[in-house]
Amino acid sequence: MSAAADQPAAMTPSGASRRRFAKSGAGVSAGVLLTLASQPAMATVCTSPSGTTSAASSRKTGTASACVGRSPGYWKTHHYDWRSAGTNGGALFKSTFYCGGRCSALAKYSCFDVVDPDKVTNGDDPDNVAMHIMATLLNVRSGKISFLTINQVVAIWYAYATTGTYKPTVGVTWDGARIVTYLKSTMI
């Protein structure tokens, strides 16, 4: 056997580029965002936050997930649909989500107000996380998305409200902008 036969085949330029990217560490925490950002504008991600960080899908075959989440803009203009989601839009946001600490300014807003960017000042909802978390809760409660639970949505918000970040899986941390990127990807 020759020495050349013991050597691996030469790596293609694109393979070398991917390897350098992975070794840089950028592929670990930013990989999800890069993947989400590269999808077509109307693409949705029908998986839980921890599922988006996994390279391999563990989704059960034959199990259909509802994946037609609506945007905050939809919920802003469709108040009558809130009832089918079992949510009183006139109730204060704090009656549904924790509003202490860094998010205490949101306690004064109704759930209707939170999905309306004209009513909540950006200083009260940096990155519009509350706006998107409220829409996501409505999507879960109305059955428009079934790959998240109410408890998962509340946990995402609670982590963000108390620490400014959310950790979908060990070693991965999302700031407000990354949380919104994920939540938007679950909406059509």
> In order across it, which strands form the biggest sheet?
1-2
Largest sheet: 2 strands, antiparallel
Helix content: 25-40%
Say how many strands there are.
2
Ends: how far apart?
A: 57 Å
The residue ranges in which pLDDT falls below 50 over 5 or more consecutive positions are 14-43, 54-62
Strand content: under 5%
- Mean of all residue-level pLDDT scores: 79
Rounded Rg: 20 Å
User: How does the overall form come out from the CA principal axes?
Assistant: globular
> How many helical elements?
9
* Secondary-structure class: mainly alpha
- Topology as a string of helices (H) and strands (E): HHHHHHHHEEH
Keywords: Signal
Signal peptide: 1-43
Organism: Massilia eurypsychrophila
Protein name: Tat pathway signal protein
Characterise the protein shown here.
- The chain has 188 residues and is mainly α.
- The protein has a domain at 66-188.
- Helix content is 39%, strand content 4%.
- It has nine helices and two strands, in the order ααααααααββα.
- Strands 1-2 form a two-stranded antiparallel ribbon.
- Helix 7 (129-141) runs parallel beside helix 9 (176-185).
- The radius of gyration is 20 Å and the shape is globular.
- The chain starts with 12 loop residues before the first helix and ends with a helix.
